[in-house]
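Step 1: inspect the first sequence and its tokens.
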Amino acid sequence: MVKFIFSDTDRCIGCGLCEIICSWHKEGVFNPLKSRIRTVRLGFADIAAACRMCEEPPCVPQCPSRALTQREDGVIEVDEEKCDGCGWCAEVCPYGAINIHPKKTALICDMCGGDPECVKACPTDALIMVSQEEVPKYLRKDLMEIELGEI
């Protein structure tokens, strides 16, 4: 079962620590522009967006330089030798989870080998590992809170 990073909107405070930790772990610098996860404000909610490991990822076939491949565990790998940073993958990602490095290569979460640094570092435990099958459970909880008030 493929797991990915899911952001609990009730807990995310938009601090950006996930971006800082990711850029440090992957690039050796504290620079959110070099992060593979992004903090986004949607209306009044903050979320952290990272690759959802789509079963049929639209980014892979859209890459004109064939720099993206999907492993059996769902992780999208970027061949930095082939990637020219054109951004087609970022354009077609339905989750806004692909970023382009300042040096023009795609940045896609690789789950840090199954133990994501951002999940461990999140001060509010807003980032959790879930499978696609588990997502509705969290969405139903959010909808019930909207309809019934805080549970």
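Step 2: inspect the second sequence and its tokens, then contrast the two.
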Amino acid sequence: MLALLAVFKIDNIILMDLDGVVYFGSKVAAGACEAMAYLRNRKLECYFVTNNSTQTRRQYVSKLKKMGIAADAGHIITSAYATAGYIAKNFPGAKVYVVGEHGLKYELKRAGIALTSPENADTVVAGLDRKLDYGKISDAATVARRGRFIATNTDATFPVENGLLPGSGAGISAIACASRNPDVVIGKPNRHIFEPIETIHGHKNARYIVVGDRYETDIAFAMEIRAISVFVEDSPINKLAVEPAKFKHLYPPDYTIRTIAGLPRLLEKIV
């Protein structure tokens, strides 16, 4: 009987967004430390899944640790990490021109991908670049017109302590306007960012629970991978976004909580 129960045991795995859910810029969200402690006490496996490509996974570990949240690099999936894995698998030997910051460049080099100048590149990979200028847009568009164009994600904004800043989607739109749309977008809501987790867990009995603050990103991602969705309402994204009601209609969440502090109570009911 015990063996039979083991066969049908379902593992609940949390896929947690970071920006706007666990923290806002350098400020930890109220209740985040307690929510993470609850997951550990319940032995619920948690992956932090973020579209932000600016930092390495180890940098995220360090940032979370300073906030009082334990994490390891193996449980942090960034759009930069997933992008590097996608290119290494599908385009080995690609010569890449990068529009992005340290986290993206580090993950690409770590995966053995050659980074080069726009003149020698056959692929442009674009993520959030807070030093984006006309020259970079021009170079990226030139590469995109003759080669591959891969985007880490197309988030229009990202939340910080006092509001919203332009996200990678703003820069990618500028490149696309001067060339064409990306061939592929890796980050949420697309399934590509889920593939590293899926590879680890294979086809075992797992129920995924996505926790995030964007309808068009996190909730749409949950729908894409057929996961349970938990929407975190009290985020700058939802207070300042132009069309949140439109996206709520398109991507209705399974559950809504005001802040991450409400996650333990919800999980007591559904897990």
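Step 3: confirm your contrast with the notes below.
The first strand starts at residue 11 and ends at 16. Residues 134-146 form the longest helix (13 residues).
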